Amino acid sequence: MAFAAFGQNTGPSAKAPTKSGRVAWILLLPGLMYLGLFFLTPLFSLIITSLQVPDASGEIGRYQYGFAIENYWLVIESYWPHILRSFAYALAATVLALLISYPLAYFIGVKARRRPLLQGLMLTLVIAPFFISFLLRTIAWKQIFSNESWIVNTLQSTGLLAGDQYLVGTPFMVIFGLTYAFIPFMTLPIYSTLERLDIRYLEAGADLYASPATTFRKITLPLSLPGIISGTLLTFIPIAGDYVNASRDFLGSTETAMIGNVVETNYLQINDYPAASALSVLLMLAILLLVTFYVKRSGTDDLL
Amino acid sequence: MHKLATEFVARGADLELIGIRKEYPGFTAIENLDLHIPAGEFFALLGPSGCGKTTTLRLVAGLDEPTRGQILIGGKDITATKPHQRPVNTVFQSYALFPHMSVLENVAFGLKQRKIEDPMPKAQAALDLVELGHLALRKPQQLSGGQQQRVALARALVNRPSLLLLDEPLGALDLKLRRQMQIELKAIQMEVGLTFLHVTHDQEEAMDMADTVAVMNKGRIEQMGAPEKLYDRPKTVFVSKFLGQSNLFVGEVAESNADSVSINVSGNKITVPKARAENHTGTIAIGVRPEKAFFHEEEPQRASDSNLIGPGEIIDIRFTGVSNQYLIEIPAIGNVTVFAQNVGKSPVVELGAKVWVSWKVEHSFGLADLPANSQTESISVI
User: Fold this and answer.
1) pTM for the full model?
2) pLDDT, tens digit (0-9, with 9 covering 90-100), for B312-326
3) For B109, which residue in chain A has the nearest alpha carbon?
4) What residues in A contact B99, CB-CB < 8 Å?
5) B88–A222: do the CB atoms touch at under 8 Å?
6) Alpha-carbon span B62 to B109, nearest angstrom
7) What is the rounded average pLDDT of the residues B276-288?
8) Residues pairing with B264 in the sheet
9) CB A251 within 8 A of CB A177
10) Which of A10, A201, A209, A218 to mutate to test the interface with B (most CBs of B within 10 A)?
11) Chain A contacts of B109, Cβ < 8 Å?
12) What's the pLDDT tens digit per position in A70-82?
């Protein structure tokens, strides 16, 4: 299962759960009830809704139970650019976040090890944005990059942007916003593996004729792979479903609408519940498929 | 087991440290170190933790930089080179085997970095040398401590370095395995002819394996030489304590002739040959090893070729297997330790018995410094 990637040890599980079996089930009960109530029930409801057909009255927003599997073909037909865009943005933002987070996490977890004060300060700075509401931060970015901002003015005057070009509403802006918002989710898991990285492995690498670059590639990188996998999953999955950054009210425009925005429009504005549900189920399946493939390919089972 | 060792060419190089000083913020790890290790020698750096021995090793490996001084390997100054450019390999105390690689990949790592041909067969041969060929595809954490240690050794040896550094690699092993590995290490060293620099705090290990032992204390080398020489004739209080045990007696020189000097310890005359004493005047410390001293239940005849003190009382007897350790309290002198082999009845005398202690003058040694408390003491270390 894909979520095994979050665990540190994917080795063989406990052997014979004989006597402790009943106690284990009792202890698991609250968690299982929670999952049943808040995950399986809504999921079931979502799937049922996605198959509904319009009510006989023909009124907007009124549906009855059916088995309209064609709902899925219809949404794919109408919204395949949004689905593709979602995953393209998610991929771009995840890669960018990784490129920014890894050196940051390496500095905090390895280089700043002997300076706990600096380490603590930098970790606090990574988490600090969470103290401000996510929406407020996104609006702040919209202000900073607004059409009248000095940044846009400067870019226009230097010719990097044409006179009628702006930043807000462009894919660049949306990917920027997504990357910014999810950097902490990438940094923290990578930091936690790098923080435990034994420096003596790096010394052994140097002792065995590996240059610093080779030591990084052959030793540091493979040993921090669990953190990279966790980080990329923790950023990619929520980004693919994000609907704030790409929304017209924030950093996006109609041209940047992602699958989340389409779900929002169908649910709250057009009241086409089956289409919105079908899109949600599709998003879930697509993410599940991609993540399973990714985790299998990255071979986390081989790690430690 | 060492049939493959013949593949390794003897090409150990000599190591020279000139005026090495290493300062860390707040303290000086090494004051001023000069050291020469001839090619092909098994050299042990012995000292307590914090004496600077591991720092010395790290400086040679290039993992730390000296504050000043020069490091030469095979006559070539390598002080300024990076660790991966040095013809040196280390067997780390913690082994530091890469956990994400198989045992074979670990051993082949250095060969691959230097683009040596056929790294895998060579790594396999090195694993066979340490009798772990059948475990080549395992992960290091699936091996026992002793096996990991041998993998670490193979990973270093396979590169045929000019100089092999051993950083207390046997410290984590149990006594029996440690003995076995000591014998194997020594055998491999003799066969491959590499220069070994072995850092350890285990005096038995150092004496057992090394051609030359340097005893290090507080960032300085106190004394250096063949293990037998160091043991027979320690020159400082520290060496006499750290290598084995010693009974030390402190007194003013009372008599001096052509061959020997004698001190007066509360009316007892203790003599040392001049050739075995560092100082011949003033207040000096004279020592004797506990196994070279004997006790007598009746006062023996005084002889010019032996020292005699007593009578005293046996206040403690410790059974250690092959010998008994007797602690004898001698009024006005202090406590003296005597080892006696358990060849007959054990113990030879009972607790509280009245005894005299004697030893041959030729077994005395005169030290260059005095014990910190400047009193006669029997020192038992480790």
Assistant:
1) 0.80
2) 999 999 888 888 899
3) A208
4) 201, 223, 304
5) no
6) 19
7) 92
8) B252, B269
9) yes
10) A209
11) 205, 208, 210, 218
12) 999 999 999 999 9
**DSSP assignment string, chain A:** -GGGGGSS--S---S--STTHHHHHHHHHHHHHHHIIIIIHHHHHHHHHHT-EE-TT--TT-EE----THHHHHHHHHHHHHHHHHHHHHHHHHHHHHHHHHHHHHIIIIITTT-HHHHHHHHHHHHGGGGS-HHHHHHHHHHHTSTTSHHHHHHHHTTSS-TT--STTSHHHHHHHHHHHHHHHHHHHHHHHHHT--HHHHHHHHHTT--HHHHIIIIIHHHTHHHHHHHHHHHHHHHHH--STTSTTTT--GGG--HHHHHHIIIIIS--HHHHHHHHHHHHHHHHHHHHHHHHHHTGGG--
- Per-residue pLDDT averaged across B118-123, rounded? 93
Q: Which among B54, B58, B63, B82 is the top mutation candidate for probing chain A, defined by the most A β-carbons within 10 Å of its own β-carbon?
A: B63
For chain A, the average pLDDT equals 88
List of residues 6+ apart from A12 with CB closer than 8 A: none
Question: A222 and B92 in contact by Cβ < 8 A?
Answer: no
ipTM: 0.81
Residues B78 and B65: their CA atoms lie apart, in Å, by: 11
Q: Which residue of A has its CA nearest to B59?
A: A207
> For residue A7, what pLDDT is reported?
43
Interface residue of A193, A196, A207 to substitute, partner B, most B CBs within 10 Å: A207
